[in-house]
Write a structure and sequence with these properties.
With about 160 residues, the chain is mainly α. The longest helix is centred in the N-terminal third of the chain and has 20 residues.
């Protein structure tokens, strides 16, 4: 599925839960297909589509935390391709938000927690500390705010 079709499925879905679920499946398949093909252009387009489309899912939608996890994975995948630390920080932020949106006893919480753990590992590998600034352009208040949320995985 091409990114325009994925984006269109999100636009058509609006707030319809069934259509949003279908759009999420299409977005995930587009990313997986592009990655499996080892096509950096297709992968970049799929990631761009996910980054632009997933935020359209309304608050309270039951699949939003998993969609946010997919969004974080897209950011981390793009970081792996480009090395842009803003994607690394976006993946971490989105992963923490997805984990915070799920009950601690929800079996699905493992997905965003894994995203956060893998993202922290990437940040450690690049900067030498899990608390290291990923970018000189990042705001100290944004970093402090993310640590002060009390997330058990934010340190």
């Amino acid at each position: 599925m091409v990114p325009d079709e994925v984006a269109g499925s999100f636009e058509r879905a609006g707030s319809d839960a069934v259509l949003l679920d279908a759009a999420l499946v299409h977005a995930g398949r587009a990313l997986a297909d592009a990655q499996a093909a080892l096509d950096p252009v297709a992968s970049g387009e799929a990631i761009r589509t996910i980054v632009e489309s997933v935020p359209l899912i309304p608050e309270g939608h039951p699949r939003r935390p998993m969609a946010m996890t997919m969004l974080g994975t897209a950011h981390r995948t793009r970081y792996d391709a480009t090395g842009d630390p803003r994607d690394l920080e976006a993946a971490l932020s989105v992963g923490e938000d997805a984990a915070d949106a799920l009950a601690r006893d929800d079996p699905a919480i493992g997905y965003p927690l894994q995203l956060v753990a893998m993202t922290l590992l990437r940040r450690f590998e690049r900067f030498g500390s899990s608390r290291a600034k990923a970018s000189a352009a990042s705001s100290p208040t944004e970093s402090a705010a993310s640590r002060s949320r009390g997330s058990p995985v934010a340190s």
